[in-house]
């Protein structure tokens, strides 16, 4: 890329990595707060789903420090689909 003024303009034939929105859904990683927001629950609830084995995670640990986990968007979709219920029976 060549910088012209304040804009980065790609040179003809230059490789441009895909934008995150262009990546397949299955390859997007979501943070725990993002998953909590998507489910409208507290992040502690998300950690309970993970501990129960209901929500798979990817561990991005970079050393001996605390782990950094992310949830695949496809995994979140599967989790939601597995908990989807049909119409409720009419009450009498």
Q: How would you portray this structure in words?
A:
This protein has 92 residues and is of the alpha+beta class. The chain contains 3 helices and 5 strands, in the order βββααββα. The strands form 2 sheets. Strands 3-5-4 form a 3-stranded antiparallel beta sheet. The model has no long low-confidence stretch (mean pLDDT 79).
Key features of this structure:
92 residues, single chain, alpha+beta, 5 strands
Q: N-to-C terminal Cα separation, in Å?
A: 68 Å
Structural class of the helices, strands and pairings?
alpha+beta
The order of strands across the largest sheet is 3-5-4
- Structural Rg: 20 Å
Identify the overall geometry.
Answer: flat
Low-confidence stretches: none
Secondary structure blueprint with pairings:
Blueprint: E1 2-4, E2 7-9, E3 29-30, H1 32-39, H2 43-51, E4 58-59, E5 69-72, H3 73-82
Antiparallel strand pairs: 1-2, 3-5, 4-5
Summarize the structure.
The chain is an alpha+beta fold and 92 residues long. The protein is 29% helix and 15% strand.
